[in-house]
Please model this.
Amino acid sequence: MRQPIATALALLVSLGGCTTTSVRSDVAAVNDLLSVRDALPVAVTVPKDEAFADTDDEIEKLLKQPLSADAAARIALLNNQALKASIVELGVPRGALVQAGLAPNPEVEFAMSRPLEGHHEFDTEVAVEFDLSRLILMPQRKGVASAELQAARQRLAGDVLDTAHRARLALFDVQAAQQLLELRTRALQSFQAGYETAVELHRVGNVTDLDLLTERSAVEAARVAVAAAETQVVDARERLNVVLGLFGAQTSWTVAGTLPAPPAEEVQAATLEQRAVESSLELAELKARLDATAGRADLASASGWLSHLAVGAHAEREEQVWEVGGHVSVGIPLFDRGQGEVASAEAQLRGLQHRYVQTATEARAAARTVYSRTETARRSAIHLRDVLLPSRQHALEETLRFYNAMQIGVFQLLQAQRDTLDAGVAYIQTLHDYWRARAALDLVLAGRHTGLGLGEARAGSVMPAASSGGGGDAH
Model:
């Protein structure tokens, strides 16, 4: 009798000891999923056990060079703690899958008894029982857990794309803020030079008190604008530090140059909607959740009809004689057949089906929106750079010539300077809008249509220049 029991126990141990709890294979699957989309600047890895491990050598190397958008994305994928948390938490559905694949433990019962009167030996009884219903339903449980793990993989892939995207946007914000600061600093220097000249002219009586005060006001307004631009640079740098997970001495990085000029070619829009839907990680996650929910409904129904099925063997020793036998225990599904669980799963399934259709609609709309934003900003930036900026600069030069000839007053000159400054600011802002929209377009095509960071469409801020021709307030 001992040999069959030992064999059975060995079989049960083998059923429960062949599964790994490592998430490395899941992270590798996420890397493979994103690499085919050409959307991963660097592969993500399972974080080290230490929460505050030493900085990666690659991060230190990247920080020593001026940061580009791709470099910022690489650092974020290597160092962002929220992303590391998402990677580690992939172990939750992985653990659920492992648990779903484990065979139930056998139950052993041992009892001894003897009559209270007389001198009788103890009667001994040993019983072993095994839950067959859980073993029979194990493949369905594993199917549900596997679908939930697949959904978690898709969700992690989306988190990876989101992290890289936020790093790129933050880098563009820093570049734009620094360009605006440089532009406003040059404007302040120009206003200061004009004011110093006006002071000398006022001293000899060629400039009125009103004109001098007007130029002084322009200087102070430009000084305030510079201070605001400096604050914007600091804020933008701190937002980037947060995304990159940097602090202390690591925050002394620099950025690579200025925002690049917009490309001359248009983005091909023919298949954008189709590509957005086909690559959508949100839709892939919902599909996996649909599979998991459908499996959960089937499992609840099967569990309701097969709530308990167990087999067992027992041996009893009485009066120096062993008796052996077996038994079967069956739960009768008379009242509880899992009706509530089935109804709940079916309702969730219907809800997910509607969410799937809605998400596909949103993905298509996102593709159209980011394409429109990208092309509008591209064309506007090119027009500002090639038409409006040269026109405003030429107008300023002509106004300055009339001003030096004392044919116009200081008001026209200051207005021409403001018009030129406004055009420069509008160009930088439009260029900033373009690169944010282009990053959002790349994100949508890579499979993520939420968290694009587009914000409200910027209203046009460049007003027609006031006339600065001859005549008017002469000195």
The beta strands are 107-113, 123-131, 309-318, 321-330. Confidence is low (pLDDT under 50) at residues 1-19, 466-475. The two ends are 120 Å apart (CA to CA).
